[in-house]
Write a structure and sequence with these properties.
The complex is a heterodimer of chains A (335) and B (325). With 335 residues, chain A is an alpha/beta fold. Helices cover 36% and strands 18% of the residues of chain A. In chain A, strands 3-2-4-5-7-6-12 form a seven-stranded mixed beta sheet, sandwiched between helices. Chain A has a five-stranded mixed beta sheet with strand order 9-11-10-13-14, with helices on both faces. Chain A has a two-stranded antiparallel ribbon with strand order 1-8. In chain A, strand 13, helix 10 and strand 14 form a beta-alpha-beta unit. In chain A, helix 1 packs parallel to helix 7. By secondary structure, chain B is an alpha/beta fold. Chain B has a five-stranded parallel beta sheet, sandwiched between helices. Chain B has a two-stranded antiparallel ribbon with strand order 4-5. In chain B, a hairpin with a 2-residue loop joins strand 4 and strand 5. In chain B, helix 2 runs parallel beside helix 9 and helix 5 runs parallel beside helix 6. The relative contact order of chain B is 0.16. The chains are: A alpha/beta (335), B alpha/beta (325). The structure holds thiamine diphosphate. Thiamine diphosphate sits at the interface of chains B and A.
């Protein structure tokens, strides 16, 4: 099987989904690129991270659609097209820009089905480049999936590797609910084996990235490889851990997490977002509520501090949890 | 509209400072000294300087992701800015903001802004404060041709008219928003007319010509200071670099940048004008150049030597206070 980067795996999923289903189209800022430009090289860009590259050339201007800088209009247009039977995949360049189009995502797209008495569906996918790691500072580094997870009606996906990204995106596109798809941008260049053919990964089914007896570690997105690094390093000290990557935060595979915690008796939850009202607290609360009797040590939460993401490389390195912090947390709950 | 000798020298010095700051920033990024995403203002210097030469510290500006030029033109400390780009704790924003968030509120700089069209609404607030205080101040927002398609920009323009506040919307048309041309992204043929449709006067400037911007800004700012409502400035001028450092610039026409650098360079144009009028001599302009080069050199060596932030500083300045800790 060929190794592919996460960028290429997502790109391949988009090509295949568009070829397979005429109702799938892509819309966003510079998803084609060079529209209206004197160079005439329309379609040369494929998104600022190159994820939609080649789609314009393969599918033309009706299905790979550049927009002005208008996030509310992009999401609204995707939502509206989905309500009437299309399967749009919109791109909002950086997840932080949810700030601009929050209403269309949360109050419109996310609530249609419920408020219309279950008589509609909105199969729109919104893709975002998510998270820190590029010294991009406070308005281009946030992992907004934790916030969006709190809104019923939206499905939220956070892949941590190329294989999952492809399968989850294909699932997202054929899913009949609105899906927010957060791509950790520091992982775009990371490669692993990815099948050429189409396949889907069901939502709400966690991946066991490592299996072990002493502690359960739950991590999201770019924290998954870091947690794996921490766990591998602890093996030398005779500590073995389950590493669970939920892959979707809504729906969340609570069974996998609880079963693992019941078996290991310990839990460390890792996320790159700030701690308050976040996923680490959410999952810690779940375990405290439903697996308390099996706990042998304190539940540890590893997250960014309660601050915006700093610019300076040293500060950002201190901000985003690393393997050392994850190792320390595992040891603390073992102590 | 005439400027005295001191004013002319100052305007030239400001433009030259921006040019050298940006060119040197480009070099330092290539050398791996500056992290993150950086958007250079090179070529558009006359826009920022032509507007800001009408302002003092009590007037405010709000800037964009392409903000170095606006901040320098408004009087931000160049040495502190360079240290900020290098991510030092001695930077103007203690290394927390970097290129996209340079701010200096004491100088009336309400921050560069990483959200396209995040600035105009905030600027309306600063203008509203000026109206309430009746202090004759104006609030300027700089934003790009891409920003005028964003709802926040429309809302800000309309609110400014409704409230009759002294806001000036400076729209810098450099033809591209990232990789997309304005001809594609704006649906109507006449962006000026569309903006005037909000109900305020819009003055057009040639952004390669300092004097053209200076004069348009004089009219717009005078209108705003009169207190009857906002005004707009449309300044047209291409940028000399890519959208961000590292942009392959597929959207450019062959020879486009050479043509801009040859025929639409505000520094060249300024020098040509001085040669024509004799208001400033070549020697006087050359002296400014050397001064500026020395300043940029000092800024870069200072930034390289400046203290690096420590991990504890991550959580400083999130709040001024946070109740009982
Ligand atoms: C709300 C929002 N959407 C998208 C972006 C990504 N982005 C950064 S700069 C830019 C283009 C801005 O174009 P324009 O306003 O014309 O300014 P210019 O870069 O040409 O100076 C885009 C799309 C952003 N920063 N914020």
């Amino acid at each position: 099987m060929a190794e592919k980067t996460m960028r290429d795996a997502i790109n391949e999923a988009l090509h295949q989904a568009m070829a397979a289903d005429e109702s799938v189209f892509v819309i966003g800022e510079d998803v084609a690129g060079c529209n209206g430009s004197p160079s005439g090289k329309v379609g040369e860009v494929g998104g600022v991270f190159g994820v939609t590259s080649g789609l314009y050339k393969a599918f033309g201007p009706n299905r790979c659609i550049d927009t002005p800088i208008s996030e509310s209009a992009i999401v609204g247009a995707a939502a509206g097209a989905a309500l009437v039977g299309m399967r749009p995949v919109a791109e909002i360049m950086f997840a932080d820009f949810i700030g601009v189009c929050m209403d269309q995502i949360v109050n419109q797209m996310g609530k249609f089905r419920y408020m219309f008495g279950g008589k509609s569906k909105c199969p729109a996918v919104i893709r975002f480049a998510s998270g820190g790691g590029f010294s991009a500072a406070g308005q281009h580094s946030q992992a907004m999936y934790q916030v969006m997870t709190s809104f019923p009606g939206l499905k939220v996906v956070v892949p941590s590797n190329a294989y999952d990204a492809k399968g989850l995106l294909l699932q997202a596109i054929q899913d009949d609910d609105p899906v927010l798809f957060f791509e950790p941008k520091v992982l775009y260049q990371e490669a692993c084996e990815v099948p050429d053919e189409m396949y889907t990964i069901p939502f709400g089914e966690a991946a066991f990235v490592r299996e072990g007896d002493d502690c359960t570690v739950v991590a999201f997105g770019q924290m998954v490889p870091r947690a794996a690094q921490a766990i591998d390093a602890l093996e030398a000290e005779g500590i073995s851990c389950d590493l669970i990557d939920p892959r979707t935060t809504s729906p969340l595979d609570t069974d996998a997490i609880l079963e693992s915690v019941e078996a290991t008796g310990r839990l460390v939850v890792v996320d790159e977002a700030p701690p308050r009202c976040g996923l680490t607290a959410d999952i810690a609360g779940l375990a405290a509520d439903r697996a308390f009797k099996s706990l042998k040590g304190p539940i540890k939460q590893v997250s960014a501090p309660h601050s915006p993401t700093p610019f300076s490389p040293e500060l950002e390195a201190a901000y985003i949890p690393d393997a050392a912090k994850i190792m320390a947390a595992i040891k603390e709950t073992m102590a | 509209m005439s400027l005295n000798k001191e004013g002319l020298l100052r305007a030239y010095r400001q433009m030259k400072t921006i040019r050298e700051f940006e060119d040197r920033t480009h070099v330092e990024i290539m050398n791996g000294q500056i992290a993150g995403f950086t958007h250079l203002y090179t070529g558009q210097e006359a826009n920022a300087v032509g507007v800001c030469e009408h302002l003092d510290d009590e007037d405010t500006i709000i800037s964009t992701h392409r903000g170095h030029g606006h901040c320098i033109a408004k009087g931000a400390d160049v040495i502190g800015m360079m240290a900020e780009l290098f991510g030092s704790s001695e930077g103007l924003c203690k290394g927390k903001g970097g290129s996209m968030h340079v701010a200096d509120v004491e100088k009336g700089i309400l921050g560069a802004n990483g959200i396209v069209a995040g600035g105009p609404p905030i600027s309306v607030g600063a203008a509203l404060a000026a109206k309430i205080r009746d202090n004759g101040r104006v609030a300027i927002s700089f934003s790009g041709d891409g920003s005028v398609n964003q709802g926040t920009c429309f809302e800000a323009m309309n609110l400014a008219v409704v409230l009759k506040v002294p806001a000036v919307f400076v729209i810098e048309n450099n033809y591209y928003s990232e990789h997309t041309n304005i001809d594609y992204a704006v649906g109507c043929d006449d962006l000026k007319a569309r903006t005037e449709g909000f109900g305020f006067p819009v003055f057009v400037a040639d952004g390669s010509d300092f004097f053209s911007v200076y004069e348009a800004a004089a009219k717009a700012i005078a209108h705003a200071r009169e207190g009857t409502g906002p005004a707009g400035i449309f300044a047209e001028q291409g940028r000399f670099h890519g959208h961000f450092v590292g942009d392959p610039e597929h959207y450019r026409a062959d020879g486009e940048i050479n043509d801009l650098r040859e025929n639409a360079c505000c520094l060249k144009n300024f020098r040509a004008r001085m040669a024509e009028t004799g208001e400033l001599s070549e020697a006087e302009l050359d002296a400014v150049d050397s001064e500026v080069m020395a300043l940029i050199e000092e800024a870069v060596s200072g930034a390289k030597a400046a203290a690096r932030p420590t991990p504890e500083q991550v959580t400083e300045d999130v709040y001024i206070n946070y109740g009982a800790a």
